[in-house]
Amino acid sequence: METIAKIRRLYYKETLSIRAIALKLNLNRRTVKKHIEQTVVPSYQKPAKRYPQLGVYLASLDLRLTEAQTQPKIKRMTACRHYEWLKSCGYQGSYSSVSAYVRQFNAQSPTNPIVFIPQHFAIGDAYQFDWSTESIKIAGVVQKTQVAHFRLCHSRAFFVRAYPNQKMEMLIDAHNHAFTYFGGVSKRGIYDNMKTAVKSIGVGKEREFNAQFLGLMNHYMIEPVACTPASGWEKGQVERQVRTLRKQIFEPMLSFETWQDFNAFLLQQCQDRILTAPHPDDKSTTVATRFAEEQRILTPCNLYQGCRVEWVRVNSLALVGFDAHKYSVPCQYALRNVELHISASEIKVIAEGQEVARHPRSFDKQQTTYNPWHYLSALQRKPGALRNGEPFLHWPLPQPIKTLQQHLLKQPKGDRAMVKLLSLIAEYGEEIGVTAAAIALKEDMPTVEAVLNIIHRLKEPVIPTIMSYDVPLRMPPQAQLARYDTLLSSGAQYATA
């Protein structure tokens, strides 16, 4: 453009001829003549590329490429596959010509680009939720973990927590932790059509929600909103959060000893990143500032106590199975149907409306969690099982009870005596039973009878001490001996009668 400007000034302002301008600027006269009327920036037009080797095959190739445009991208053949097909038809040219022609054809084909519309959310209006699958090491074992992502749409504050799976009890626990972290709940929750939330999809926005999920939403008074299927942009904030945190946190692979350590790390990451992250809509402020403003608008709430409920049958080993793991139940409930109240952290066994057992939730497959006290009634009938019974192999008994057990098992019928001792502990309580065993060992009386005697002594009621006070007499007593004469005379009269 600088050269063109010189040509035009010399021609129109200084009225030089084309020949004189060409000599002065060392240009060809045709170049000078071409640019005299040039007022726009010249652009280079790349000549259309020719494909002589494809000449006879272009019609068939165009037909295949046109048909491919109607299919999803994942099902379209690559340029390499088209090249192999052309070679089978006799094509002698190079692969680079085929790939260049395929790129040119796709670039010239009419497309319908997806246009995204910017969204705006009022303060305290909504949050978005999504799951992501990440790989981590727990106690040295690589596992697939399901990470629950929450994001407040106005302030952009976020919360993440990891679980072994995406089942309903995990979803409930994730909401409880998220709303505790946020300090309240929004008016609406935006979800995709996951099975734990949506039972069936109707026309448009019509959805039949899962009953347990609706119970969760009802407790927190949230209006659930389900996205259109395959329309992730309707919750684009949390979708972007998943991609960003995957690169920033979960790559390379993390390693922790326990799930608690992993979730503590994720909580710290949420707190640290919110403090320093600038707000996308206003770079002059931070997410933490907007979050503090939004927290004042959120509705305060109490934790949801709901859980997943399933009916199971107790087997002859007094065990119930759930999620490929077994849990013990008191022996009297064997071969009966019971309820399991399942949460993310524990399993409760309910029979006839009463809680009969409780265990911490375990995700180890094909393993068993025992409570040895559940088998006490069976031990009373089969005391020999105390030596080799699986529930008792790793029983963490208090040290006085273990020491006393060693003494009892050396005696005749020691198994039965040990079972009797355990029955005493179950009847009177572990605290007093351990104390009595310690006293019996100290007094060198390692017998069940001695422990029972000590328990009775420990449980004897304490006789209260009566405090007496000396009360001073205002009038000292006066001796009247004449009263004895009166009594003697009265006695003589009765005797005569």
Structure commentary:
The N and C termini lie far apart (161 Å). This protein folds into five domains: 2-35; 52-108; 126-295, Ribonuclease H-like superfamily/Ribonuclease H (Nucleotidyltransferase, domain 5, 2-Layer Sandwich), CATH 3.30.420.10; 308-369, no CATH class; 377-459, no CATH class. Helix 14 runs antiparallel to helix 15 (414-428) and helix 16 (430-442) crosses helix 17. The model has no long low-confidence stretch (mean pLDDT 89). It has helices at 2-13, 18-25, 29-35, 58-68, 79-88, 95-108, 168-182, 211-220, 236-248, 259-276, 287-295, 376-381, 385-388, 399-409, 414-428, 430-442, 448-459, 482-496; strands at 126-138, 141-152, 158-163, 188-191, 198-201, 207-209, 223-226, 254-256, 278-279, 282-286, 308-313, 319-322, 325-328, 337-342, 346-351, 354-360, 367-369. The chain is elongated. The longest helix is centred in the middle third of the chain and has 18 residues, at 259-276. Strands 1, 2, 3, 4, 7 and 8 form a six-stranded mixed β-sheet that branches. A four-stranded antiparallel β-sheet has the order 11-14-15-16, with no helix packed on it. Strand 12 (319-322) and strand 13 form a beta hairpin. The protein is 41% helix and 19% strand. The protein is built from 18 helices and 17 strands. The protein has 497 residues and is an alpha/beta fold.
